[in-house]
Amino acid sequence: MNTPLVLTVISADKPGLVESVAQTINQHGGNWLESRMSRMAGQFAGILLVDIAEDRVEPLRVDLEGLTSLGINVQVAISGQAEQPEQQGLKLNLVGNDRPGIVREVSGVLARHGVNVEELITECAPAPMSADVLFKAEARLGVYPQTDLVALRNDLENLADDLMVELTDL
Question: Structural domain boundaries of the chain?
Answer without folding.
Answer: 2-78, 88-169
